[in-house]
């Protein structure tokens, strides 16, 4: 970080102690023909990604004292495409669960979707319209554990809750086979339950039992709603700015990682009121 003034989104020394070893190990495996492993400060690259995720700024508007756009995007795209962001996210999640006295992998998840309005520059070919909510953009689907830690994320266009639910269950079964129960709302139809049964996951529809209008926390399902609310603190996720759906997934993972390193180090994330 050098002599620059830190941004609220920067990782602390304690947080970098969690992230740094993974990324340094990643770099050590990528030696060029000339025997070099790259000389960019990976901590500053992470700081730039987290700054943009938190503030929602465009690539060209990254502050001059952070790594330049081309360098930051190069690493963001590389870690997105080779799965490094997913690997680090999942390892941090295991640590967070163990720190909370839980087993590394959960046995139950809460599943839900969210419609995100797309910015004007996002290609129409990668977006659609939520027929129910009349929102043009993409849908973000999450499967989270009882602690609100993300187990799977899916971003897609012009699909139903049913289709996203099936994709989420596929990812959960592939990467977290310990899961045997998934809690969903009434928007998910019978196809999701049938697909879950094939995967060995019991899909349980948890319905509201009251007539109160507006948002009401629902037992077992409330945790995923809370996660969506937390993600909205990251302005890059408040609207769909990513041209590629896979970039949107990666951005969600980075926001989740920011939350987990705060949780693991006992620090408080900044709010919109002081950023």
Count of helical regions: 9
Class of one domain in CATH? Answer: Alpha Beta
Low-confidence stretches: none
CATH fold label of one domain: Nucleotidyltransferase, domain 5
CATH architectural grouping of one domain:
2-Layer Sandwich
The named CATH superfamily of one domain: Ribonuclease H-like superfamily/Ribonuclease H
Task: Give Rg in angstroms.
Answer: 19 Å
Description:
Residues 105-240 form the Transposase IS4-like domain. It holds the Pfam family DUF4096. Residues 11-88 form the Insertion element IS402-like domain. GO terms for molecular function: DNA binding; transposase activity. This protein is α/β, with parallel strands linked by helices and 275 residues long. It has a domain at 103-242: Ribonuclease H-like superfamily/Ribonuclease H (Nucleotidyltransferase, domain 5), CATH 3.30.420. The protein is built from 9 helices and 6 strands; from the N terminus they run H-H-H-H-E-E-E-E-H-E-H-E-H-H-H. It has helices at 13-28, 42-55, 69-81, 84-99, 161-175, 190-199, 222-231, 235-238, 245-265, and strands spanning 108-117, 128-130, 135-144, 150-156, 181-184, 202-205. Strands 1, 2, 3, 4, 5 and 6 form a 6-stranded mixed β-sheet that branches. Helix 6 links the parallel strand 5 (181-184) and strand 6 (202-205). Helix 1 (13-28) packs across helix 9 and helix 2 (42-55) crosses helix 3. The longest helix has 21 residues, at 245-265. The protein is globular and about 55 Å long. The model has no long low-confidence stretch (mean pLDDT 88).
């Amino acid at each position: 970080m050098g002599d620059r003034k830190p941004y609220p989104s920067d990782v602390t020394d304690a947080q970098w102690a969690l992230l740094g070893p993974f990324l340094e190990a990643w770099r050590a495996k990528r030696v060029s023909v000339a025997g070099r492993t790259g000389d960019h400060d990976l901590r500053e690259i992470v700081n730039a990604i987290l700054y943009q995720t938190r503030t929602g700024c465009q690539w060209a508007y990254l502050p001059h004292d952070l790594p330049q756009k081309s360098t930051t995007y190069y690493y963001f795209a590389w870690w997105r495409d080779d799965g490094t962001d997913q690997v680090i996210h999942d390892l941090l999640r295991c640590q967070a669960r163990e720190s909370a006295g839980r087993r590394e992998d959960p046995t139950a998840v809460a599943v839900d979707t969210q419609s995100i309005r797309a910015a004007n520059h996002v290609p129409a070919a990668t977006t659609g319209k939520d027929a129910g909510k009349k929102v043009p953009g993409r849908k973000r689907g999450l499967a989270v554990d009882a602690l609100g830690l993300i187990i799977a994320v899916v971003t897609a266009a012009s699909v139903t809750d049913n289709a996203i639910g099936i994709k989420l269950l596929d990812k959960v079964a592939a990467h977290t086979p310990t899961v045997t129960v998934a809690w969903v709302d009434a928007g998910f139809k019978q196809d999701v339950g049938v697909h879950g049964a094939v995967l060995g996951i019991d899909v349980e529809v948890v319905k509201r039992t009251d007539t109160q209008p507006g948002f009401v926390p629902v037992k077992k399902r409330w945790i995923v709603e809370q996660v969506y609310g937390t993600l909205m603190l990251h302005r890059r996720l408040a609207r769909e700015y990513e041209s590629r759906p896979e970039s949107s997934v990666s951005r969600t993972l980075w926001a989740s990682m920011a939350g987990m390193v705060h949780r693991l180090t006992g620090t408080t994330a900044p709010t919109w009121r002081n950023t």
